[in-house]
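Minutes, methods subgroup
Present: GH (chair), OT, SY

1. OT presented the first of two proteins processed in the latest run. Sequence and structure tokens recorded below as shown on screen.
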Amino acid sequence: MHQTITSLLIIDPQYDFYDVPLNEQLTLVAQPTAISPSLPVPHSWEDAQRLASFINNQQNNINNIVVTLDSHHEYDIAHAIYWQNKDGQHPAPFTLISHQDIVDGLWQPTDQEQLNHLLEYTQSLELTGKYRLIIWPTHCVIDSVGHTVVAPIQTAIDNWEKRKNISHHTISKGENPHTEHYGGCEAEYPLYNDINTQFDPQLATLVVQSDRVFISGQALSHCVASTIEQMVDKLLLDDIRKLTILIDTTSPVAGFEQQAQAFVERMLALGVNIANTTDVMLS
């Protein structure tokens, strides 16, 4: 008799993306500094509680847990210090930088050797209809508190590991400072000289080898959407139908609610399932 293989994919469940309540910020992690999320997604702390409950309640029924980690350096194409204007000032958070801005000299790389790359990069983003290049608050810097998985989710994963006597699997993304990396499968602009920015089949393979895959994480409008779109692009319809977005455990970046809603509607049309954790019955 075939055992049903159930997998859980958690996208970027890291402190910098969670609106951790102030009373929790000092107590959650044994760190010399308080947790101060740099890019908190509204309602994400509630999302984390619901996902942790789902993992704890379904411990016996989950066979695999895969976690992607947004992993950046201070110097990163989507962080302010990568760019400057003619006065040497860095862009403010949420500044959009277009191809024309670079051509006009409005924004230039702090390292002029990157100029040709960035002209090609921004042109490619605009021609392929990808996210515009945006300067985010510096976030998920490797080895920082903000890079760490939030405690409710990490504790639930730890409990699952003890129960199942297996370990979860982690996929790191975003370490190359010269390209953005929203999705867990490939960078926005894959680089020919860095295999880690090129398409990685791990997540598509996870779906093929599973009977059902539940997906959670942050943020619905960006890294969750991008990861799922990259996956469905490589999957057959029967495999796409295995995917379920746990919609009560993921939220959009503030100001990007419409993009998130449009993404959900596209996925429903393709055959992806949308469910609340309370509606999922596993046996």
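2. SY then presented the second protein from the same run.
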Amino acid sequence: MQGFPGENEHALSVVGSKPMEWSTVPYNAPRAPGPNGKQRTSSLESPIMLLTGHQSAVYTMKFNPTGSVVASGSHDKEIFLWNVHGDCKNFMVLKGHKNAVLDLHWTSDGTQIISASPDKTLRLWDTETGKQIKKMVEHLSYVNSCCPTRMGPPLVVSGSDDGTAKLWGYASKGLHPNIS
């Protein structure tokens, strides 16, 4: 499938209740350059890739550090990993949260994801195996956000409805040792 409007009047999309069901949807964009006057330069097979399969609202999506994979977190308690190039195939589902996934971030090396949930936890996932590496539990209410360090020691900060922000060392147990 060529990726330019007019060459093929369809965009590839994923539809249905299972993440691996495929379909095409009409793409009727004009053949003219985009609003900025430039031709599209991405390597996507279509100008729009529709990634569906979650059973409920999607709250967060993030690219990995190389831009080759997108992770999506949903009210359905799952994290989907999607290839960005080619047919944008869903290749993994991370399961373990007991409530929605409100936020997620890739670690700087792209081998792990940290996620935040109203189940009062942060979770660390291995993106090669899909296994949960660590569950961090110390918040007293919903965990709304998280963000790992980009450089330096493996740390993540989390924010919660309990009115606290916590700094965690995710290579070790519990909170960062400098937090009282």
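Chair's summary of item 2: The mean pLDDT is 79.
Next meeting: continue with the remaining queue.
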